[in-house]
Amino acid sequence: MTAVTNPGVESAPYTVEEVCEHFDPVLGLEVHVELNTATKMFCGCANRFGAEPNTNVCPVCLGLPGSLPRLNGTAVESAIKIGLALNCHVRERSGFARKNYFYPDMPKNFQISQYEDPIVFDGYLDVPLDDGSTWRVEIERAHMEEDTGKSLHIGGATGRIHGADHSLLDYNRSGVPLIEIVTKPILGAGVRAPEVARAYVTALRDVLRGLGVSDVRMDQGSMRCDANVSLMPKGSSTFGTRTETKNVNSLRSVERAVRYEMGRHAGVLLSGGSIRQETRHFDEQSGTTSPGRPKETFADYRFFPEPDLPPLEPSRDWVETLRAGLPERPWERRARIQTEWGLSDEELRDLVNADALDLVADTVDAGAPPEAARSWWVSYLAQQANTAGVTLPELAITPAQVARVVALVAEGTLTNKLARQVVDGVLAGEGEPDDVVAGRGLAVVSDESALTTAVDEALAAQPDIAEKIRAGKTKAAGAIVGAVMKATRGQADAARVQELVLERCR
Amino acid sequence: MTGSELISLDAAELARRIHAREVSSVEVTRAHLERIEAVDGPAESGVHAFLHIDADGALAAAEAADRAIAEGTPASPLAGVPIALKDNLTTTDMPTTCASRILEGWRPPYDATVVARLRAAGLVPLGKTNLDEFAMGSSTENSAFGPSRNPWDLTRIPGGSGGGSSSAVAAGEAPLALGSDTGGSIRQPGAVTGTVGVKPTYGTVSRYGLVAFSSSLDQIGPCARSVLDAALLHEVIGGQDKNDQTSVGAPLPPVVEAAEAGARGDLAGVRIGVVTQFSGEGYQPGVLAAFTDAVRLLGELGAEVVEVSCPSFAYALPAYYLIAPSEASSNLARFDAMRYGLRVGDDGERASDEVMSLTREAGFGAEVKRRIMIGTHALSAGSYDALYGKAQKARTLIVRDFTAAFETCDVLISPTTPTTAFAIGERVDDPLAMYLADLCTIPSNLAGNAALSVPCGRSADDGLPVGLQVMAPALADDRAYRVAAAYEVARASVDTAPRIPELRALETSR
Ligand SMILES: [Zn+2]
User: Fold this and answer.
1) What's residue A4's pLDDT?
2) What radius of gyration do chain A's Cα atoms show?
3) Mean pLDDT score of chain A, rounded to an integer?
4) Contact B334 A100 (CB under 8 A)
C-alpha cells in the first residue's frame, strides 16, 4: 500500500484504544484567558464584550503614531494570582517583548507580549478526573499579552478569510489583557488523554472563576484553548510531529478535538504517511478538524524587549499578600462543603450540575442555614430560571438577597408563601427583599391587637361556628382561621391565629 | 518696535516685553509670521523650515495670551512667545507628517504631551517644521517634501533630522522650537546653524505623542538662540507624564537656575573632561580650532579641564545603527494603509497585504526603507545575537565609560559634530559619510544622559558655525546648562558675529 498524505483526504479516524495499541499520545494545551479588568491592558478604554464596534478605542489601543502603552496594574495582579493558584514561581524581574508580525486586526503590527521571561513559570495543577483520581498537569509558564482586534470577513461561505471579498475590523478587543497559560508536554495519559485534556481545561476554568479574574466563557471567547497533539510510537521517547487545533470553543470540544486528532494522526502514520506540522481548525458540527492556513515555513516574530515599558518587579510583600488571599481550590471547597452540609454524592452532583453550588455556598456565607439555602436554589429559584430560560447564576437575585429572605421567614416576618412573592419582587427588579416587603405590603400581621380584633370580628360574623368551638369542637376553628387569613390577605401567621381563636373562645 | 527687531530678540527678552505690555504677543507673533513669509519659501530655494504654518491658530493663541496677561494671569513666564514644532509631534489642529508621504494629510486626534504643556503654558505654536523622514538623517535631505536650508549659507544643510527647527530658530522665523534627538537630531542641527540644542536626560521629557523612531533613544528637547531660553522651554515641557511609563519620577533638575548661575561667568571648582576620542581624522581643522579655543576659554572661567578616555565610544556608531533601525523596523510597522495615511493600490481586487506592500513601497523614502531592512535583519532569529544582542552589549560598555568619566568629571565636552554644515547633495549618495555627522552625539543617546550643543564661534576655514557639546550625567542636566551658559557669555565677549544671519538677499528676491 502506498502512503496517502493528500491533505484533502482524511484517513478514517481510529478509536483512542486502537491508537494507544501503537502509540503514546503527547498533549500540549495553550489556554488564552481574557482578564475581566475594568480597563484594557495598556490604556484606559473599557474592557467590555459586546459593545458597538470601534467604540472602546483610543490612540493607544488603535496604535496611533506617537501613542505609548501604560500598563494596567490590576492585570499584573491577576497574572500573579493565576500563577500562584497554579503553583508557579513568580519572576522577580520580568518584562515585555514585542512580537512582530503583520496582521490588519493588530494595529501596531506588533503584539506586546512576554517572551523569555514570563511573569510566572514552572507550576502544576492537580486535576480531578471523573473516577475521583487526580492527574498532575505541569505548567510551563503563564504570560501576559494584549489581545488583537477582530476581523469580520464579509462574503464567501465560511466567514473565514478564504473566499471573503472584504473584511471589517473592530478594535474593541484590541489591547484587552490576556493571559496565556501553557502546559508542559502531557505524557502517559494513554487512552485517557482526551479526558485529561477536558478535565484540565475544566479545572483551570474553575480555578480562574474562583479567582474572579476572568469570565472564562469559552462560548464568548474569553477563554480559548489550542490543543497540540502528537503521537510517538510505543516505547519511543521522541515526540512525533504535532498539530495545533484551534477554534475549540467548549469543554466537550476539547475532548473531541483531542480524540479526533489522535485518531487522525494514527491513521496517517499507520498508513505510512507523515503528519504535517500545521494549525488545524475544529468543526463543532462534525467533530473533525481541517487544515487551517498552511503555516509559512517558519514564523520569525523578531522578538525584542519592549522599549516603551520598564521591567516588571513585583515586590515580595505584594506577592505574599496575594498568595495569602488565594481562595480555596473549587474541588477542595466542594469536598469541604459536602462534609459540612452532610450532602450525599447525588445531592452534591445535582448542585454542581445546576451551577448552584457557589450560589448556595454564598447564601450560606451570607447567614442562611445550608438546608434552607439549598432548597431555595434547587427548587423555587431553579423553576424561575427555567421559566425565564436563563441559568441560575444569571438569575437577577443575589445569594445575599436569598439569605435575607430566609432570615425574614425564620424571624416570622414572612411565611413561605409570602417569601416566594418577595423573591418574585426581587426578580422583577423591585429592589431588595425589604423593599419588596414594604412595597407590596407583604409582612406577616403580627400586631397582636390587630389580629385579636380580626379574630373577634370573624367570630362575631359566624356565631354558630363560634358556639361550636366554645362547645369544645376545636376542629371548627379552621373556618375562623381561614376567615382571618382572608381578611389579612394571607399576611398573618396561621398558627398564631389558631391559638388566638381558641383563646378567645375559652 | 520694528518686526526685524522683534525677530532678533531672545525668547526671555520677548517674554519680558510682552509681560510688561511693551509689545503684544499678537505683534510678536505677526512679526514672526511675516519673517516666515519673507524667508521661508519657496520650497525650492528658501529656508524651507516649515511644512505647515497655522497663522490663524497662532494669532488666536497670541490673542488669548495677551488677554491673560492683561488680566494679570499669564500662564507661564513664556506665555505669549511663539514656537515652532517639529513635525513628528502630534497636534490636533495641524497635520503631522514626519516628512513622509505615508502620513501626508494625517490629522492626529490628540496632542503630544509636550504640545499640550506648551499650550497650557500659553506659548504660541506657529507651525510644524521639516525633518528627515521619520527623523532618520542628518541633513533634512531625506524629507519627502524637500530639504530645509541653512540660513548661514542656503546651499548648505541645516543639520538633521531637526533641520527645520534649527533653521527656523537661526533664521529668526521662531525664537524657540521643539526637536527630537535620537542620535543627535537636536544637537547637530544646533551646531551647524549656530543655535542652542538640548537633549535632556532620557525619561525627563514625555515622549507621548512623539512619533517613535527608536523608542529607547528618542528624546524631545528645546531649540533656542540662548542657553537661558532653552532652559526656560525645558522647564515648560519637562517632568513626569503618566502616559509615558519610561518617564522618570525624579524632580526636573533646576535648569533655569543653572543657566542664570552660569551666566555670571564663574566656573571655579568645575571639572571638565575633554573626550580624547572625539578628535583627529575626519574632524575639520576649523572645528578643532574653535573647540581648542573653547577649552581655553573654559579654563579662563576657572574650570579645571582634563582629558578623559572613553574607548568604548568607538562602538557607539555601529551599535546605534543596529539598535535604532531594529526599534524603527518595529515602530514603523504600523504604517500599513489600513487605518490612516496613504493607501496605494486599493482597487477592490487586491488583498490587504498587497495594498500594504504597495503603500509602503510608495510611501517610504529610501533611507527609511534601508533602516527598516537593516533592523528587520538585525532582529531576525539567525542574526539577533550577533547584531542586536552585540549592540546592546556595546551599549552597556558605553554606559560604563560614561559612569567612569563622570566619577572624575562634572561634565564632558567635545565638538558637537566633526564638520560644519556640508553642502546639500554632498553626502546623499554616501550614507556612511552622512552617519558620521552624529559620531559625537550618539553616545549620550545610547547612555541616556543629558547633552547639549552651544554655539562655539565659527570655523576659520569656511566661516560657518561650530558647536560645543557639553555632556552631563543623567538627571544632572543643570550642570550642562551652567557650563554652557558661562561659555556663551564668555564667547559673546570675543565674538561679534550676529546671531541671526543676513537673509536680505532672500527677502529682497521675493
Ligand atoms: Zn484604548
Assistant:
1) 39
2) 31
3) 89
4) no
State the residue range of the domain holding A256: 16-305
Measured distance CA(A98)–CA(B482) in Å, rounded: 40
Q: For residue B81, which of B14, B178, B171 has the smallest C-alpha distance?
A: B14
Half-sphere exposure of A82 (CA within 13 A, CB side): 36
Of B25, B166, B180, B185, catalytic = B185
Residues B289 and B459: beta-carbon distance below 8 Å: yes
My answer on whether A70 and A199 are in the same domain is yes
User: Which chain B residues have a beta carbon less than 8 Å from that of A167?
Assistant: 352
**Candidate from B96, B246, B333 with C-beta closest to A308:** B246
Identify which of B211, B242, B258, B239 has the alpha carbon closest to the alpha carbon of residue B484: B258
**Nearest chain A residue (CA) to B333:** A109
pLDDT, one tens digit per residue, over A174-197 is 999 999 999 999 999 999 999 999
Is A4 within the bounds of a domain? Answer: no
In this predicted complex, what is the ipTM? 0.96
Interchain CB contacts (distance < 8 Å): A and B: 100
Q: Is residue A175 located within the same domain as residue A146?
A: yes
Place of cell 481574557: A34
Contact B103/A307, CB-based, under 8 Å? Answer: no
Successive 10-residue mean pLDDT values, chain B, 510 residues: 88 98 98 96 95 98 98 96 98 98 94 98 98 98 98 96 98 98 98 98 98 98 98 98 96 97 95 95 95 97 97 97 98 95 92 93 98 97 95 98 98 98 94 92 98 96 96 98 97 82 68
Tell me, yes or no, if A309 comes closer than 8 A to chain B by beta carbon.
Answer: yes
Whether B86 is catalytic is yes
Question: What percent of chain A is modeled with pLDDT above 70?
Answer: 94
Better-scored residue on pLDDT, A12 or B266: B266
Number of domains in chain A: 3
- Of B209, B339, B376, which is closest to A107 when you measure between CB atoms? B339
Nearest CA in chain B to A104: B338
Which CATH class, in words, describes the domain spanning B3-312+397-492+500-508? Answer: alpha beta
Cis-peptide into B414, omega within 30 deg: no
B208, B217, B390, best to mutate vs chain A, most A CBs in 10 Å: B208
Task: Tell me which chain A residue has its CA closest to the CA of residue B383.
Answer: A302
Shared domain for A258 and A353, answered yes or no, is no
A67 and A183 both lie in a single domain: yes
Note the pLDDT of residue A7: 46
Nearest to B211 among A65, A104, A310 (CB): A65
Higher-pLDDT residue of A309 and A392 is A309
**Within an 8 Å CB–CB cutoff, is residue B351 touching chain A?**
no
DSSP notation for B301-335: TT-EEEEE--GGGGGHHHHHHHHHHHHHHHHGGG-
Residue A123 has pLDDT above 90, yes or no: yes
Q: Give dist(CA B220, CA B237) in Å, integer.
A: 9
Can you give the pLDDT at residue B190?
Answer: 98
In a shared domain, residues A106 and A220: yes
CB contact under 8 A, B245 and A307: no
